[in-house]
Sequence to fold (217 residues):
Amino acid sequence: MSAIHDLISQIGDRRLRERLATEWAQASQSKKFGLVFEDHLPELLPLHQAKPRKGDLVCRRQGALKEVWQVKNVKDGVITCVKPKDDTHPSEPTRSAAEPVSFAVEEMLVVREFGETRPMFPDMVIVRKHSNDFSIDILEPHDPSLADNFEKATGLARFAEKHGHLFARIQLIRKQSSPAGGEHFARLEINKAVTIRQLLLISSNPQLDDLFARLAS
Fold:
């Protein structure tokens, strides 16, 4: 900022110099310069086909995406929700005294906070015996039409990156059309360095579909 003041002070015309100094002072009060870290609402990803479950974040389908609630209970087509404790991090646990509100299930849309970490429970963990040793496989059949497909794939890739040496196969499995006709179960072997690298770069289901087309067997 001192460099700007120095430049203004070098202006020979007194009236112009004073006017520029006044304008700069006003601009400095209303704007932020340099590296600015401002509080903001997190980016949210809508999952249009996901069914609301306890603990999920939801918003109204016809409302604003940032107006979210946490699901406390789902019963008989009705969702009971509370407002998040922290609007800047809505996936954090809610305060116990929050006022509950109820909505029809079809009225609400499940959303995810970018960067939110959620537990995953694979459908099949296979243990195979080889002589005096054992190998363990993680097999995860998944419907390709579900909105959380790429999230599950990248989650498995991060897991394989850290713990893949403890497992034999880590596979995401889906039913898809076969080039020979009909349908077959395609397996994407995640426990490979080349697959992990490519999975960690994707951010959408179409990108995962393309990866399946190229690498699945």
The longest helix spans residues 14-30. Residues 62 and 107 are 8 Å apart (CA to CA). The beta strands are 44-47, 57-60, 69-75, 78-82, 101-104, 108-113, 124-130, 133-141, 170-177, 183-189. The helical segments are 2-9, 14-30, 149-163, 193-199, 205-215.
